[in-house]
Design a protein that fits this description.
- The chain has 253 residues and is of the alpha/beta class.
- The protein has 2 domains: 11-46 and 121-251, Rossmann fold (3-Layer(aba) Sandwich), CATH 3.40.50; 48-114, DNA polymerase, domain 1 (Orthogonal Bundle).
- Helices cover 36% and strands 13% of the residues.
- The protein is built from 9 helices and 11 strands.
- The protein has helices at residues 48-62, 69-73, 80-89, 98-114, 126-135, 148-157, 181-190, 204-213, 242-246; strands at residues 11-12, 31-33, 35-38, 45-46, 121-122, 139-143, 166-168, 197-201, 217-219, 237-238, 249-251.
- The strands form 3 sheets. Strands 1-10-9-8-3-6-7 form a 7-stranded mixed sheet, sandwiched between helices. Strands 2-11 form a two-stranded parallel ribbon. A two-stranded antiparallel ribbon has the order 4-5.
- Strand 8, helix 8 (204-213) and strand 9 (217-219) form a beta-alpha-beta unit.
Amino acid sequence: MVKGEGNAPATLKGEGQGGEGATLPTSPFPLHVKAVVIDLDGTLLNTAPDLAYAAELMMADLGMPCPSPETIATYIGNGVSRLVKRVLTGEMDAEPDAELFERAIKLYQKHYGDNVSRESRPFAGVVEGLQAFRKMGLHIACITNKAEQFTVPLLKDTGLFDYFELILSGDSLPKRKPDPLPLLHACEVFKCRPAELLLIGDSLNDTQAARAAGCPVFCVPYGYNRGRPVAELDLDAVVPSLHEASRLLLKAA
């Protein structure tokens, strides 16, 4: 769809040899970019409570025990279908009975659609970061694996929709993250090189997509990376908030 704050310092790749808070002389910061694309679940919005609530309702309808909300949070990141499969099986990559899955996905889509913004809210620093990106004159996009039927109402209900020139959901293109296609499509829309487009996300999906596309990538530490620290990923910086991320950027000429 194309449309008409913490105070902790960022952790930069390669930092740590010059004392606390020091940046090595070879630091690539500030990055010169023309566009910022941002993941939704776990980066812009804390959606875990509503995703878990919909799962609880689904499992109650099926007469099955539901994993804890904390466990369900580790299942987020690969779209609703994979989330439902993980809830049903208790495993990250297992396949449930096909008939059970068909019943479950219909129930989940109904319950999540009815409760998509029940408790979901922006993380600290998100609004300030979006305002800073806009003030810098950067193009701003949201790229998510969430289906458009949930993405658009969620962004509208939480007041973030109007910040984005481009919104790509999990079903907007033939492929989604970790495939690079959504990022390369955004480069075409914004008429910029991959090196001039920054992805800010929270998980392995994001870093893999960025590296495959040739884009720089930052990650926030508070999201849904299957319970693993994002510092383990191949990235350019761990930023405590979008607002802090804005301080590492300049608009490219």
